[in-house]
Amino acid sequence: MEGLHERELRVLRGPRFAWWCLQGRQDRQGHAVRDLPAAARGRALNVRSSALPDFPWDLLEPAKAIAAAHSGGIVDLSVGTPVDSVPPAVRQALADSSDAPGYPLTAGSPALRAAITGWISRECHASGEFGVLPTIGSKELVAWLPTLLGVGPGDVVVIPAVCYPTYEVGAKLAGAEVVRSDSLTAVGPDPRVKLIWINSPSNPTGRVLPVEHLRKVVAWGRERGVIVVSDECYVSLGWESEPVSVLSDEVTGGDYSGVLAVHSLSKRSNLAGYRAGFVGGDPALVGELLAVRKHAGMIVPAPVQAAMVAALNDEAHVAEQRVRYAARRDMLRTALVKSGFEISHSEAGLYLWATRDEDCWATVDRLARRGILAAPGAFYGPSAAKHVRIALTATDERVATAADRLAEPFTD
Ligand SMILES: Cc1ncc(COP(=O)(O)O)c(C=O)c1O
């Protein structure tokens, strides 16, 4: 625990596992959930999900049906799911490790820990002593991090005004309150704030936070004992500006106290199906995550750990994938601009953040009639209601088809 601020310690020691408390209450009353009458069972099982936002993707189904009815087939640019192959060396590493009868290490194999440490040092330009921990994907970590760190009811988690929806989900699973803000001044001196998420390059906007901004957030967090967590899963995809990790010497000067960076191999190495991520930063915070996870599990499977080692020790496949995305990005960007869209931010990451200065659902419908599915900005925050998010994750053929369709005049 050395190196933690007093308030961080209180967060870590504070009420944990609201879900566990609920289970405990039921157990003490002597009822297994399956023994409850249907209505009560429904109540017990709905407690968590009813605190969460509606699952937004269901709302996109009507537009998806319209796009799917296009004679040339749908071009689905609504989700950022990789479509290119897993690099052969990574698949080989997975296959070579498939005889894995024993439990893997929660902390990661020595080879994986060394690979993560080496990668963070090289790619994030971090020269100090940071902690590392592999995670099952990074969505899973984002969703459970506040809970794992002891953030709970009465606490506040600050998330970007327009952002990846799972930050809100994670705060709500922990029972905490969510404040959306990009401005530290607007957050003010609220002592309930325990954790702040930043995301650079951003999903959905593609915005990159400059070094000075990152420094300010870290300093602000340290002054208040607020844990700063930076989601950097698109860090290898800078186009018009170079993304900087919160762990870089330029930001932290090698002192990682109160700071964590979350990384993923999903986009960088086309490993979304493997569920491979990791977290690095403050050794005390990472140690606490490991201590909880030793009890709670969520262990990365041994073959996936071996695949991660192969992926992290090779940058050639990352460079090849970048070239594919750069070509798709150019084609889509040009076609969108020609057809009257304005592109905001989008200087990095896997998406084009586009607007026709109209309600995002009107744009989604227009595109759907052309057989193109985009994600409405409204999924990412109330202030994004006039944007749509266009993913670069489609095959070259589908991207070229989308560009052709965008060339037809937008008269409807
Ligand atoms: C900003 C951001 N963070 C985290 C994730 C989760 O990625 P994964 O769980 O595949 O590592 C995503 C996925 O799209 C994302 O956009």
From TrEMBL:
Which superkingdom is the protein from?
Answer: Bacteria
**Any idea of its EC number?**
2.6.1.-
Say if the entry is tagged with keyword Transferase. Answer: yes
On whether Nucleotide-binding is a keyword of this UniProt record, the answer is: no
Q: One short Pfam family name for this protein?
A: Aminotran_1_2
Sequence ranges assigned to domain Aminotransferase class I/classII large in this UniProt record: 74-406
Q: Show the GO MF annotations.
A: pyridoxal phosphate binding; transaminase activity
**UniProt keyword list:** Aminotransferase, Transferase
**Cofactor(s) required for function per UniProt:** pyridoxal 5'-phosphate
For this chain, the family text in UniProt reads:
Belongs to the class-I pyridoxal-phosphate-dependent aminotransferase family.
Q: Please identify the protein, giving its name as recorded.
A: Aminotransferase
